[in-house]
Amino acid sequence: MYEHEVSNRIPLLLALSTCPRCIRMKRFLKEHNVEAKIVDVDMLSLSEKKATYRFLQPINPRLSYPTLVVGEMAVIGEDYEGVKEVLDL
Q1: Per-residue DSSP letter, 69
Q2: Which residues are within 8 A (CB) of 4 and not within 5 positions of it... i.e. 6 or more apart?
């Protein structure tokens, strides 16, 4: 489902539209001019949610948000230092 983003190292933020941590992470990415694909999982259709969960489960078994995926690397939660590291900010 997100093979294009992963294979091209396009930052992919899996978030929830109402999650305060997710909102702060979106703001952080915007403030640092990071062009990421942002997916608000709670706004997806049921079939898209299921596909997203299947994608996310091996990366983040707790299915917690926000989760930022960059290539083969992932940053879970509000780990801004981790985000800076994977994005070379």
Answers
A1: E
A2: 10
Q: Structural domain tally of the chain?
A: 1
Q: What is the CATH number of the domain that holds 53?
A: 3.40.30.10
Q: Domain containing 68: what range?
A: 3-87
The whole-angstrom separation of Cα 4 and Cα 6 is 6
Task: Write the CB contacts of 23 (distance below 8 Å, at least 6 apart in sequence).
Answer: none
Residue 86 has a pLDDT of: 96
Which tens digit of pLDDT belongs to each residue from 18-28?
A: 999 999 999 99
Residue 14, SS3 per DSSP: strand
- Tell me the average confidence (pLDDT) per consecutive run of 10 residues in the chain, 89 residues long: 94 98 98 97 97 96 96 96 96
- 3-class DSSP assignment, residue 83: helix
d(CA 49, CA 73): 21
The pTM assigned to this predicted structure is: 0.95
